[in-house]
Structure formats: structure tokens, C-alpha cells
Specification:
Helix content is 36%, strand content 14%. With 152 residues, it is α+β, with helices and mostly antiparallel strands.
Length: 152
């Protein structure tokens, strides 16, 4: 479809995909970023290791802009993970998946039931922070990232 998802390879190039996510991807490409959309239908990733020298050297600034949501459309979410930044529709993401599963298995009728009161999660990196903060309890394995250890 127009979102770029096909079951056949090669994947649809970003320039042929439509929607807010892919317009943002094109904007970042124009700034010189190399994007990974291979295997993703509703997301793309920017990996520090794949950037040209100038962008790689200033990648921490890019990470901070993402954290501050600077230049990111309201319809998109982003998270960092292992030196990468993932962009995706705001309605997706791990916290929203947890909320969906809670509603699916326990129903919408109980307003008292929430992630904060009934959900536990296991998390190990920055892309789990939003989910962890929404849940009643978060467990962090000993092999977690340094940034997660600081939050613990």
C-alpha cells in the first residue's frame, strides 16, 4: 500500500511512501540523515553508526532535539534505543500496546483498571521508558543500558 508495506522485496523507497511519517522521513533525508526503513511498514530508524562524520559527531544534539520533540510532527512518536532513534505514529509504541492489551483482555468497562494499577513490565533500554513509567511496576534486568540504570 501507500504506507510502503509490501510482502515482496525490495521495499517501497521512502520517496514513494505517503503520510506524515514518511514526509518527516523525507525532511530528515534532506538534512543528510541516512534512514533505515527496510522491514518497517510504519516506522523508520536513524542509527548513529550509519551517519556521515559530521552528523555522527553531532548525533547527541540530534538525540536531545528528539527528546525535546523539536521539529517532530504532533502525529509522530519517537524513542531512542541503542544509539538509534525510532520514529513511528504516535498511536503506536510500547505504552499504547500495553494499554491495548489491558483493554482487550480485561475490557473497557472497568475505569479503575489501568496500567498504573494493574500492569507490570520488563524493560532494558530507553525505548521502554514511556511504558515503564505508565505501568505499576517495571523490572529491569542486570544487563540493562546505563541510562535505564540511572532511572531505576
Amino acid at each position: 500500500g501507500s504506507d510502503g508495506f509490501l510482502t515482496l522485496t525490495p521495499p517501497t523507497p521512502i520517496e514513494h511512501r505517503r503520510g506524515t511519517l514518511w514526509e518527516h522521513a523525507k525532511t530528515l533525508q534532506k538534512q543528510g540523515f541516512f534512514l533505515d526503513s527496510s522491514g518497517y511498514a510504519t516506522a523508520f530508524r536513524i542509527n548513529r553508526k550509519h551517519q556521515e562524520d559530521d552528523l555522527a559527531l553531532n548525533f547527541d544534539n540530534f538525540l536531545q532535539k528528539c527528546k525535546d520533540r523539536e521539529g517532530i510532527p504532533d502525529e509522530l512518536g519517537c524513542s531512542t534505543n541503542l544509539g538509534c532513534v525510532d520514529f513511528y505514529p504516535i498511536m503506536s509504541g510500547k505504552r499504547n500496546v500495553c494499554d491495548y492489551l489491558l483493554r482487550k483482555f480485561f475490557g473497557d468497562h472497568d475505569e479503575a483498571m489501568s496500567l498504573k494499577s494493574h500492569a507490570l513490565c520488563l524493560c532494558d533500554d530507553d525505548n521502554d521508558v514511556e511504558m515503564a513509567l505508565a505501568c505499576r511496576k517495571a523490572y529491569i534486568p542486570s544487563i540493562t543500558s546505563e541510562s535505564m540504570q540511572k532511572l531505576a
